[in-house]
Amino acid sequence: MSSDTTDRNIVIFMFLFFYIYLAYIRRQIDIMKDWSQYRCNPLYLFVSSFIVSNDKSISNFDNCVNSMASTTIDNSLRKANLQQMNIAQKITSMSEEISNNNNTISTTLNDVNSRNTDISNNIVNILNIQDTNKQLLKEYDASNNSINTFTTRVNEIFNNIKQYLPNIKL
Question: Distance (Å, rounded) from C-alpha 61 to C-alpha 44?
Answer without folding.
Answer: 10
